[in-house]
Write a structure and sequence with these properties.
The protein has helices at about 5-30, 30-50, 60-95, 100-110, 120-135, 155-175, 175-180, 185-205, 220-245, 250-255, 260-270, 275-295. By secondary structure, it is mainly alpha-helical. The longest helix has about 40 residues, at about 60-95.
Length: about 300
């Protein structure tokens, strides 16, 4: 499968997982939710890596680099994203996180020397613009769902969303040279997840009250978190690393930003109401941009 399509599949995984994540993330808090999700994802990924034998390709340097990427992208980035979601809901946190495509495009041109020209450049602009429009205009004027409410200061939620996007960009681009060398994507995901989990454990052990769970874990929460870990972190992140191995890093990041568009029909199913007209227009632009790039 083409790297760009793998990135789209990863975006779909993240869209689906956000529906599993919103409720337990709000109840447990961003830090406790992230710890449980990483624990489940690490168990899944290491089981697959041990069975597949991909861990044999890893050396000390690769583990260290993957660990640093995991701390930036998963420990800091994912936690900031769910803290943003707790404040702003999945729709508005989605548009903030989608800016990682812009960060990635800029960083890829400066660090990796990647450039976009012609139809690919036009398509990228349409795709990113469509994503932004779909999310910004995705709310109906009379929508009162709890996921549309602002909790706490709006500026803090925006800052957390932009921090998550920047961390995602940096962490992903860091892995391009390593993944191009042929490192197994599942084993790489397992290492990143495990070392990010260690960082979370150290933060909890430090005694900082913000890292503690707001409430105890319930059986229903555990089931939803496991589903989120399996779909988003075990499958989605592995697909991104696999796409990064063969694809252009900037384009992979741009395609992975389709999550907010892909989540629209899912939110429709939750709200039982059709998204606003602006959401459909944004989705149409994103599809047109995708077609131009793939062509």
């Amino acid at each position: 499968m083409r790297p760009e399509l793998l990135a789209v599949a990863a975006a779909a995984c993240w869209a689906v997982s956000s529906l599993f994540s919103a409720s337990p993330a709000q109840r447990l808090g961003a830090f406790a939710f992230s710890r449980w999700r990483m624990l489940f994802a690490s168990a899944i990924l290491w089981s697959l890596a041990l069975v597949g034998g991909g861990w044999r390709d890893l050396d000390a340097a690769a583990v260290a680099w993957l660990g640093l990427s995991g701390v930036i992208g998963i420990f800091v980035g994912d936690t900031a994203l769910f803290a943003c979601m707790n404040r702003l809901g999945p729709r508005r946190s989605g548009v903030l996180f989608a800016t990682h495509a812009l960060f990635s495009g800029l960083l890829a041109s400066q660090i990796l020397g990647e450039t976009l020209w012609g139809w690919a450049l036009l398509g990228s602009g349409l795709l990113v613009g469509g994503v932004m429009l779909a999310v910004v205009r995705g709310k109906r004027g009379d929508e009162q769902h709890q996921w549309e409410q602002t909790r706490g200061r709006l500026a803090v939620g925006v800052a957390l969303g932009l921090l998550a996007a920047l961390c995602q960009s940096v962490a992903t681009l860091m892995l391009k040279p390593l993944m191009s060398s042929g490192v197994d994507a599942v084993a790489a995901s397992a290492v990143r997840m495990s070392l990010a989990l260690v960082a979370h454990g150290l933060l909890l052990a430090s005694g900082w009250h913000g890292a503690r769970a707001k409430d105890s874990l319930r059986r229903q929460d555990a089931g939803l978190i496991f589903l989120s870990a399996a779909v988003a972190m075990a499958l989605g992140m592995t697909l991104i690393l696999r796409a990064m191995r063969d694809g252009q890093a900037g384009l992979v990041a741009i395609f992975s930003s389709l999550t907010p568009v892909l989540i629209l029909p899912l939110l429709w199913a939750v709200y039982r109401r059709r998204p606003a007209d602006g959401a459909w227009l944004g989705a149409l632009l994103a599809v047109a941009g995708t077609a131009l790039i793939l062509a």
